[in-house]
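Milestone 3.1: sequence recovery, worked example.
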């Protein structure tokens, strides 16, 4: 099944499938695409047949007698029957299996509050204590995006980020989605997750990321060769080097994992150095291949509403969380 995306590489069909529930969704999408392809081809052939068979030509007159169309009716009935099978035997069981199995408390799910507004995603983590601190719209500022009350004891280990989301692999994730202005739609294509965010409502979704689907692993599986003769910095500005590149003197031009310049001028300079070193191609991988987007037209800058998604192992996530909490509390002590 070429349509299915079961590894960590982007293909010509679907993005990588990185969640535990996504395989069933991919299978459903595959069945629907094959069904629609058969219908498209079949009706196309029939349409062409009618154009040729009943074209205007000398010696032939139109027939005004009713057409029985027995074969056509049988085909239409067959299509309806198949659609019912897809709906009741495939779609509804997949949806019910997902919707009726939220993560239990015993599974220690990570709960994240996701606030959407034009044109950004705001993520609120409750910290290791599992308790969200109080929020107050009056406290919202450029540095306190969600209006977190830092005087609340439950807020001491809370974290908040804008357009930057970190999630652990192998652990159930529960997101509670809010909208502050208009209707948005949280979409994580690689997790096969999509949910509208509606003002005045708290809408939960849940999923589990495959254990091996860390950002590092996904990025490694997406290395591409770019021809330097036809490559511009704008095309590769979100990519990093997959290996070290040196000049003829042995000096490093760009290290593995580094971007090829921070702006157009530095990027053009590095690309020229790579050419001068005799490189015809350069191996690059996405700096961060995963993202969260808005799937609902929400204003003029809707296309900019994207968040970087970084998936980490459970240990890496705990270490990241501990470091961010320490950094936050240090900054608060300095401010006071």
């Amino acid at each position: 099944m070429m349509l299915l995306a079961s590894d960590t590489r982007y293909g010509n069909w679907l993005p990588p499938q990185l969640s535990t529930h996504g395989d069933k969704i991919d299978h459903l999408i595959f069945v629907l695409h094959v069904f629609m392809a058969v219908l498209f081809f079949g009706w196309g052939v029939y349409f062409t047949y009618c154009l040729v068979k009943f074209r205007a030509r000398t010696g032939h007159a139109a027939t005004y007698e009713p057409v029985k169309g027995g074969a056509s009716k049988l085909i239409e009935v067959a299509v309806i029957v198949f659609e019912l099978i897809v709906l009741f035997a495939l779609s509804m069981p997949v949806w019910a299996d997902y919707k009726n199995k939220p993560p239990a408390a015993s599974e220690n799910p990570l709960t994240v509050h996701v606030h959407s507004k034009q044109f950004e995603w705001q993520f609120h983590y409750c910290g290791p204590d599992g308790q969200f601190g109080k929020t107050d719209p009056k406290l919202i500022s450029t540095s306190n995006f969600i209006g977190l009350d830092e005087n609340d004891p439950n807020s001491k280990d809370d974290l908040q980020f804008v357009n930057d989301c970190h999630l652990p692999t192998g652990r159930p994730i529960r997101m509670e989605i809010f909208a502050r202005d208009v209707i948005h739609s949280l979409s994580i294509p690689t997790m096969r997750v999509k949910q509208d965010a509606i003002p005045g409502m708290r809408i939960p979704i849940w999923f589990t990321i495959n254990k091996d689907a860390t950002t590092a692993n996904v990025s490694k599986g997406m290395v591409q060769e770019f021809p330097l003769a036809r490559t511009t910095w704008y095309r590769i500005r979100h990519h990093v080097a997959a290996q070290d590149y040196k000049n003829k003197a042995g000096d490093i031009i760009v290290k593995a994992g580094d971007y090829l310049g921070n702006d157009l001028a530095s990027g053009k300079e590095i690309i020229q150095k790579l050419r001068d070193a005799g490189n015809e191609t350069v191996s690059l991988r996405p700096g961060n291949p995963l993202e969260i987007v808005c799937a609902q037209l929400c204003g003029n800058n809707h296309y900019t509403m994207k968040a970087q998604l970084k998936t980490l192992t459970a240990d890496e996530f705990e270490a990241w969380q501990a470091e961010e909490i320490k950094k936050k509390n240090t900054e608060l002590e300095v401010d006071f």
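Residues 22-53 form the longest helix (32 residues). Residues 1-56+65-101 form one domain.
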